């Protein structure tokens, strides 16, 4: 008996008990959440589709194909057919959202034409993949965890599953293979689990500082993802966090640098899948996600420009808005498509299977920190600045305006308080948009927290009133670097020179590639002129830099949290040339940037203290 027939025999025994379990094992079918007709798959229906096909195969004598191993046992109704013509792991592997004993593993398994033939793969049978996870890099010894899952065109051949029963704070190596041909394997991925929530702060990461690389705004056509490559190859980052705008919906023109995007402006599920697919062909991005794990958030461009809960700058959810969209899809349909494709391609957890859009979630990394990931964009955000609606100027400070929505806002306060109560040293809030008030000449960016002032005040009030220390807010979205002490805007009890009166720190990072908000391609000297003005006008802002594309790296232990900013030399071709632009220290209990800020000198941009 062939190995795959043995395998199928094994499958059958299990299938008798629970026919859809190999489909259910693939979390992509619950993309992004269960029990919703437009947003999840009925795996029973898919299973029935397979069975119908299987019956056809034996009853219709003219149907002949060797590539579906099957088992003609008594219980034919349960017989699974799986593709055995070979599969292509087209997009390597990835992992994400680890907990202390589990982590999500990801791959994509596409059926290929059997060797030597031009036969098109029949897509009406499931693809079956196995995975194994080991502690040794050469995959020797007994696997720590292993399992099997199906995928199919319904989920763009993505596979997302949870490896469980792992040891906390441990590095693992994993690989997928074709169930019908175990010698056909994916690249080997590296991942890790987090320390258990009760691990003492000084024991997390085996006592070494934990380092987190933070990215945002990676537009394919705007440049090469050198920042990803640099972080993967030239830093010791343990964790990668992307704060959103991981893909862009727009078409743009990257032909000049060999980065043209395929398709059109995104609107349908096919469009979003194609764009995610193309982004994942980037070698720097692959290197990054194959070797470390990822925590992901989405900002507007994962759906559409300046989106909010019911619309975007690109379209209104009206007949006119539908007509504007390239496919005629209304905003709501567009958002559903975007969210589905996102959950298929991103190794992120579905925290609440019944909460449609929820991606906000919290990770307790020992007693060292809580990493609290928010959704300030797609969940419940009230109307934002969509360019023509100047009314946002007048409503920006209304109390009844919410960026997070009531449920998430309450959860944030509870999470921060719980984190303090459990004696976690640091509270790191990963979110999309700039938190600190930033006056830009006469105006504010109303698509940032400046457009939701009461919501921002409530967050700060919660920190001050409950004496919650060591909060560090991360932000992306703005395509420039901004480092600030956290305090109520215009509060004169905060002292910009000493930092006294502050309640934390904000580290906002520039884009991986997207053009500077100071002016696309702006040179350092010109950007610094603007930065000088900005750090002069804005009390809380301690460093501003607007020329370089890049990312920043946090290095955290129980005594200090450091942030080192990196600028990439040139993103118009693939290279690993980056340099530190500034290094900041935050000391446990100080709730401000340590003075002198950045040690008094920076490699780029302007410090307030240098004025
Ligand atoms: C596998 O997929 C990659 C990426 O799409 C492609 O370049 C390659 O030709 C495929 N290999 C086979 C055998 O189909
Ligand atoms: C695999 O790695 C382990 C260490 O993790 C080592 O003991 C073993 O000899 C290696 N096996 C092979 C075949 O290289
Ligand atoms: C959306 O609606 C506003 C207000 O009615 C209008 O000014 C704008 O042109 C519309 N935009 C699109 C893309 O339809
Ligand atoms: C929100 O608050 C403003 C200002 O107080 C008020 O004019 C407006 O009617 C309120 N909107 C709603 C929906 O309650
Ligand atoms: C802070 O002061 C500036 C300048 O007077 C003003 O434009 C801004 O609205 C004030 N911010 C808040 C939150 O009151
Ligand atoms: C933070 O940086 C300082 C130097 O600026 C260094 O002494 C300290 O060890 C660093 N701490 C961590 C956790 O990386
Ligand atoms: C970046 O590299 C390109 C291609 O080599 C070159 O034309 C361009 O001048 C470089 N830009 C900078 C800022 O060095
Ligand atoms: C980053 O690492 C690569 C090789 O891993 C090396 O070629 C490159 O010079 C490094 N970059 C810097 C700025 O050190």
From TrEMBL:
Domain of life: Eukaryota
Domain Phospholipase D N-terminal: 91-193
Keyword Signal: yes
Record-linked CDD domains: MPP_PhoD
Record key words, sorted: Signal
Residue ranges of every copy of the PhoD-like phosphatase metallophosphatase domain listed in the record: 213-564
Record flagged with keyword Signal: yes
Signal peptide extent: 1-19
Record-linked InterPro entries: Metallo-depent_PP-like (IPR029052), PhoD-like_MPP (IPR018946), PhoD-like_sf (IPR038607), PhoD_N (IPR032093), Phospholipid_Metab_Enz (IPR052900)
UniProt-recorded name of the protein: Alkaline phosphatase D
Organism (species): Hypsizygus marmoreus (White beech mushroom)
Name of the gene this protein is made from: phoD_0
């Amino acid at each position: 008996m062939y190995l795959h027939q043995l395998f199928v025999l094994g499958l059958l025994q299990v299938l008798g008990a629970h026919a859809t379990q190999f489909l259910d094992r693939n979390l992509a079918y619950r993309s992004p959440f269960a029990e919703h007709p437009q947003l999840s798959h009925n795996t029973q229906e898919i299973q029935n589709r397979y069975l119908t096909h299987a019956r056809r195969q034996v009853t219709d004598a003219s149907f002949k194909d060797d590539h579906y191993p099957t088992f003609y046992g008594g219980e034919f109704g349960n017989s699974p057919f799986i593709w055995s013509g070979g599969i292509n792991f087209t997009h390597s592997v990835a992992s994400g959202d680890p907990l202390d004993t589990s982590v999500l593993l990801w791959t994509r398994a596409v059926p290929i034409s059997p060797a030597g033939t031009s036969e098109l793969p029949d897509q009406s049978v499931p693809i079956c993949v196995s995975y194994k996870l080991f502690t040794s890099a050469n995959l020797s010894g007994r696997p720590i965890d292993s399992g099997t899952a199906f995928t199919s065109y319904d989920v763009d051949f993505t596979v997302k599953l949870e490896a469980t029963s792992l040891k906390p704070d441990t590095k693992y190596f994993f690989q997928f293979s074709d169930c019908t041909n175990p010698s056909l394997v994916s690249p080997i991925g590296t991942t890790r689990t987090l320390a258990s929530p009760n691990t003492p702060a000084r024991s997390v990461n085996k006592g070494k500082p934990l380092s987190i690389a933070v990215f945002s705004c990676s537009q394919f056509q705007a440049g090469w993802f050198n920042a990803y490559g640099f972080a993967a190859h030239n830093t010791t980052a343990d964790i990668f966090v992307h704060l959103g705008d991981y893909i862009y919906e727009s078409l743009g023109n990257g032909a000049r640098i060999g980065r043209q995007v395929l398709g059109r402006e995104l609107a349908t599920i096919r469009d979003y899948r194609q764009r995610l697919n193309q982004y994942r062909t980037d070698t720097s991005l692959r290197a990054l996600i194959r070797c470390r794990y990822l925590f992901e958030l989405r900002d507007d461009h994962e759906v559409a420009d300046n989106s909010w809960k019911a619309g975007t700058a690109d379209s209104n959810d009206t007949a006119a808005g539908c007509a504007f969209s390239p496919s005629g899809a209304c905003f709501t349909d567009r958002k559903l498509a975007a969210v589905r494709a996102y959950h298929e391609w991103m190794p992120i957890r579905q925290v609440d299977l019944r909460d449609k859009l929820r991606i906000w979630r919290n990770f307790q990394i020992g007693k060292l920190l809580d990493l609290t990931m928010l959704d300030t964009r797609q969940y419940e955000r009230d109307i934002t600045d969509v360019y023509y609606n100047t009314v946002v100027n007048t409503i920006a400070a209304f109390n009844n305006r919410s960026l997070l929505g009531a449920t998430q806002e309450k959860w944030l306060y509870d999470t921060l308080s719980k984190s303090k109560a459990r004696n976690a040293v640091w509270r790191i809030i990963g979110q999309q948009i700039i938190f600190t008030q930033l006056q830009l000449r006469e105006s504010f960016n109303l698509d940032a927290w400046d457009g939701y002032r009461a919501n921002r005040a409530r967050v700060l009030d919660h920190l001050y009133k409950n004496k919650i220390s060591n909060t560090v807010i991360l932000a992306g979205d703005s395509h420039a670097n901004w480092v600030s002490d956290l305090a109520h805007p215009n509060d004169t009890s905060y002292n910009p020179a000493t930092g006294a009166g502050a309640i934390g720190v904000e580290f906002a990072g520039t884009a991986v590639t997207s053009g500077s908000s100071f002016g696309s391609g702006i040179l350092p000297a010109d950007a610094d002129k603007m930065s000088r003005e900005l750090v002069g006008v804005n009390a809380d802002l301690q460093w501003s830099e607007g020329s370089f594309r890049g990312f920043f790296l946090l290095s955290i232990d129980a005594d200090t949290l450091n942030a080192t900013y990196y600028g990439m030399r040139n993103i118009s071709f693939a290279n690993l040339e980056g340099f530190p632009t500034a290094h900041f220290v935050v000391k446990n209990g100080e709730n401000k940037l340590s003075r002198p800020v950045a040690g008094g000198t920076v490699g780029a941009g302007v410090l307030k203290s240098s004025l």
